Amino acid sequence: MRTINKFVKVKTLAEAYELNQKRSNVVLGGFMWLKMGNQAIQTAIDLSGLGLDQIEENDEGFQIGSMCTLRDLERHEGLDEYFQGAVREAVHHIVGVQFRNGATVGGSVFGRYGFSDVLTCLMALDCQVELYQRGIVPLKEFAQMKHDNDILMRVLIKKDGRKISYQSQRHAKTDFPVIAVAVARKENQFFVSVGARPMKAGVIEKSGWLPASSRSDREIEALADWAKDQFIYGSNMRATSEYREHLAYVYIKRGVKEVLGNDH
């Protein structure tokens, strides 16, 4: 059980950043995963008064505030339409509606959890994070950074015409994923993200590739086989590494076929 000595609803990002420099202080986010620990929190930092709970869409892309909930992602019509339902698919299996009404985008992304559906999906898109101190950083780079005391303000997704497919495997409806796979296509460039390996999501790119119509199935299988070999898989109580590797191959192949759409 967590114990909190002091609760502060900050009025500015500067105040939040200053408070967060002390290691015993913690940004709450949605407090859905944090509450599972037992570490004492000296000062809990609440960002809910900073207007970071909006999803803004324009011709260039989407700006998603860190305090937006996973339910906000699930229900946003613009995200759903532009990304062919993939963002909704990535979040609507996560526990239940009540949980998704509390869990935040910022908490999911900043945590860089190995089981994160959200991180896996976003890694396959042209996505950046906006940090208070460091500024704008590509998500692929951010995912590899060590955890620090910066403040995640927004997630930025560019509209670059990508088609994307998201799939995951679970033993039970509300369980963590055994494997999570996102495949995106921008013209003849493919992006494959695999998470829950059970390590955090990584992404690879394959450029200059499109299947020939006469042998597309063989080429897609070869691409899926190559792509799954670019990742490392581990074993835990949910699955063996071999099983995860096989699932990754199956879902990458399905994802490639889906994003090819009418071209295949």
Descriptive account of the structure:
This protein has 264 residues and is an alpha+beta fold. It has three domains: 3-41, no CATH class; 55-158, Uridine Diphospho-n-acetylenolpyruvylglucosamine Reductase, domain 3 (2-Layer Sandwich), CATH 3.30.465; 163-263, Enolase-like, domain 1 (2-Layer Sandwich). The protein is 31% helix and 26% strand. The protein is built from ten helices and twelve strands. The protein has helices at residues 13-20, 70-75, 77-82, 86-91, 97-100, 105-111, 117-123, 139-142, 216-228, 241-260; strands spanning 3-9, 25-27, 40-46, 55-57, 61-65, 127-131, 135-138, 152-158, 163-169, 179-186, 189-195, 202-206. The strands form three sheets. It has a five-stranded antiparallel β-sheet with strand order 4-5-8-6-7. α9 (216-228) crosses α10 (241-260). It is globular. InterPro entries: CO_DH_flav_C, CO_DH_flav_C_dom_sf, Diverse_Substr_Oxidored, FAD-bd_PCMH, FAD-bd_PCMH-like_sf, FAD-bd_PCMH_sub2, Mopterin_DH_FAD-bd. Keywords: FAD, Flavoprotein, Oxidoreductase.
